[in-house]
Amino acid sequence: MSANVAGDKPKLIIFDTTLRDGEQSPGASMDKDEKIAIARLLERMKVDVIEAGFAIASPGDFESVQAVAAAIKDSTVCSLSRALDKDIERAAEALKPAARGRIHTFIATSPIHMKYKLQMEPDKVIEQAVRAVTKARNLMDDVEFSCEDAGRSEPDFLCRIIEQVINAGARTINIPDTVGYAMPRQYGAMIRDLIARIPNSDRAIFSVHCHNDLGLAVANSLDAVMNGARQVECTINGLGERAGNASLEEIVMAVRTRKDFFPVQVDVDTTQIVPASKLVSRVTGFPVQPNKAIVGGNAFAHESGIHQDGMLKNRETYEIMRAEDVGWKTNRMVLGKHSGRNAFKSHLAELGVNFANEADLNAAFARFKDLADKKHEVFDDDLLAIAKDSQQIQVNEGLRLVSLKVHSETGETPAASLVLSINGNEKQANAQGNGPVDAAYRAVNDLVGSDVAVQEFTVNAVTKGMDSQVEVNVRVEHDNHIVTGHGADMDIVVASVKAYLHALNTLQTMESRLHPHVATH
Ligand code: KIV
Ligand code: ZN
Question: What is the pTM (predicted TM-score) of this model?
């Protein structure tokens, strides 16, 4: 089957799995509203397929797939399912509201997975795959089948199973390198050989899904495209299991920038890439490394005098892409303390932030005015921190910081005194610690009886200069749940406490959903 032809080259289908594989990164869980916000941005970006989740995995996943399916009109919305009747039925149910839905079903095909994980004979695996695809096709026209761990599967076996699932109605055949083991030339040749050897391969689109364990996910995906793959599965910022997936921005910009090289074209609106990257980073609390291709803060920065000189003479001496084409603004902040609410709202919309209601917008706008009074310049990242923090205040239903006093002096033990609102009741505690943040966290623990373990604590100055806001991300673990809390403020200890309370509130929400009768504070 040939992919849609747009212009003179076949189209490369961009399948985004940030909301499914991306969410499988420990600590990257997203709630329904966050998923809808990301899906909307992906739709605006004109991503072809959005994998919204794994409907059977939990009631929350089901609701998220359903909500994304209802919200998205222009992209296909997909749910993952194992090759099991109950998974497929659940996926179809969640996708009911979709304008265009796809069931993505998979089973492992490598000798090691079949023997140890599935404990099934290869012929039984084929039987189950065919049954699953037949079942899915009875519920939905658009069905994708994945051979999990295809990168380590035997080509003869892949030919057999793929031929049969195409006959059963699979329209897309995905060949994942699940463990990131493949090498580009070898993986490309594998795709080429499968397409050549499978007699009915012209009736399906071949897709790739590469993990980044050896840092080769993008290279492997692009080699596959050179050898006939017409769908790439990828994620914003390369988020995903372990070392992540192929990053959407790198795939799209490689194909776009090297039109002379690739035999395909992409339909994506690339100006939405940076807003999407910032939104995903904000929601997950995973910062983007400054030297990350396309979306890193330094991706379009020129420091060396020789480079700057070349750039002034001709931009193309040192730039192969334009920053504006991927959504960077080269100009600095244009909002100031005289700006109005509408300018503030539309500027944040350009950055991928859309407020759920007027109250959220008003809270964020009030904080912006406050900051604009104190700072010389307000940058985009300041705005994002404000937006996030305001949304966080909405989320903080149980625990909220009322006031904080810290004492830190050379030779003295740091001490903190804070007042929290706990379900509307104000309580006060004092504590000492190894540093002011430690003291403040101990005071919080005293008040809420928390025994969470702090796994990671990062502080980023979100803009340059001594008057910068700081953003704190703290990853905590309790009862095998890992969540990330975010907080932003000009005061580092206040930002740290806000981040900690955000994490505790998220944990509390999560645990009260799982165990409705147990309240942790
Ligand atoms: O990595 C993988 O194999 C997957 C499949 C379920 C597509 O994520
Ligand atoms: Zn995967």
Answer: 0.72
